[in-house]
Amino acid sequence: MTPEQKSFFRERGYILLKKTLTKNQVGPIKEHILDELKRLKLWSSGKAMSASIKKMPAFQQIAKLSGMIKQNEIHTKVITQAASSTIASLTESKVVQAQSQLLISLPNQGGWTLNGLNWHTDISSSSPDLVPGIQAFVLIDDVKPHGGATLAMAGSHLLKNHSELSRIREVLREKGDIEEELRSSDLSIVEMAGQAGDLYLMDMRVLHTPSINSTTSIRMMATVRYLLE
Ligand SMILES: O=C(O)CCC(=O)C(=O)O
C-alpha cells in the first residue's frame, strides 16, 4: 500500500486493487454458483428455469439469490493475507470480520439507469473522522459496465452534515442529470466493474447501491464486511 493509495482511499472512500486473486482461485467459486443455480432450478444453460425469480424486481432478485446460494467460509477464499493487511493498514486499527455473502444478479434485468436505485450505508459512523469499517467487494467473474456491479458514491463519506446528505439523496431521487449534479459536489459514481479477482475496498460510510444488470452475463461478486474491533 503506497502513501498515494492511502490518501486516495481517505479522499474518495474506496480503492481498487486489481487481480488480487487468480482465475484458479475464483474458478471454483464460480463453478459452485453455477452448480447451485442449476440445483435450485433457477438458471441453467443461459436460461432462467424459474419464472417467479425472473419476474421479481431486480433488487429483490439479488436478495433472494444471496439468501439461497451460500459458500462456506467465503471470506477465507476471497480475501488474501495481503488484502487483509491492506484493510488493517487503511483503518489503522484492528478489525473483525463481520457478515459475508455472495452477490448474484441474473442477466437481462432491464435498461441500465441511475434512477430508482437503493442508495444506503450499512452502518452509521460514531465520528466523522473515523473509518468505522471497510466493506470488501470481490469480482468472482468478469463484470462489464452496466453488468450489475455495486455502485459507490465516491466522496460521500466526507459529507459532514445532515443537510448535505439530504440534498444528495434528493438529487438521487430526481430524474435529472445526476452525474452533472454530483460533479459540483466533488462526488462521483464508481461502478465496481472489472475482471475476475479484482477487489474494491470501500469505507463503510460511503453511500452505495445495487445496480441493474443489463448485460447477458450473470453478475457474480462476493462481499465481506470488516468492522473496527
Ligand atoms: O451489489 C449489490 O448487490 C449491493 C451490495 C450492497 O448494497 C451491500 O452489500 O450492502
TrEMBL record:
InterPro entries: Phytyl_CoA_dOase-like (IPR008775)
Keywords: Dioxygenase, Oxidoreductase
Organism superkingdom: Bacteria
Protein's UniProt keywords contain Acetylation: no
One Pfam family cited in the UniProt record for this chain: PhyH
One of the record's GO molecular function terms: dioxygenase activity
Name recorded for this polypeptide: Phytanoyl-CoA dioxygenase family protein
